[in-house]
């Protein structure tokens, strides 16, 4: 059976909820703070884990306060990592304002590193999907990651993220020529394609990858291009926080494509998943929602 290989970090997210971020030299009280598992790759793998789809999670875990937290939480979820490193894990401070918008301050540790030996023993077939995030590609070991991807079978799904344009250009170009499906938001599309119009950016990126380009548009839904244009509206939801919205969207897209949905149907399913995530605190949803997703995937709708 085909599977989804998820390569990337598991992070300790420290959520800090405030009415509004203060300006420089300002001062404010927070409403509350929480520690949770996060990281783009983890968020994708966790969705697949909860829906019971076959996946392989390649995610290093280090030492220290945050590494111990990640290891313990993964174990409780039944997602134990086999990559145990001696360096320290970092963390991400996620500031959530009253309207749900988020601001990240990250300290990267060994969780963002990569070693090609971690893929040894994993059989990756042409029918498999391989998820990778721009944050790992940007790191010093990103060159080794791209080189490893170049020698793998399977369909790469690349999420450049908000720092995708900071990836060394030669490295980025090499990855794009591997023909990944691209999943990004409007701002990321404009920055990566170096254009002023989203549609122009999509066409420019597609001409390089020769594959599907998916651009999420928040409350306006999603557009995509695979030689034909798709434009699907978002599902109505009350935004609580937007953390993990993009991760949940690509997770839903991957799940739907994996079970054989056509692109338009998969995009609609991804929109549905993302609408539930932004309407809740954090990325982890109520278990009954995962059961609903499983049913929809099995029924093909």
UniProtKB/TrEMBL annotation:
All copies of domain Carbohydrate kinase PfkB, residue ranges: 1-283
Name used for this protein in its record: Carbohydrate kinase family protein
Keywords noted in UniProt: Kinase, Transferase
Lineage: Bacteria, Bacillati, Bacillota, Bacilli, Lactobacillales
Pfam family, one: PfkB
Membrane spanning stretches: none
Family: Belongs to the carbohydrate kinase PfkB family.
Keyword Disulfide bond appears in the UniProt entry: no
Gene Ontology molecular function, alphabetical: kinase activity
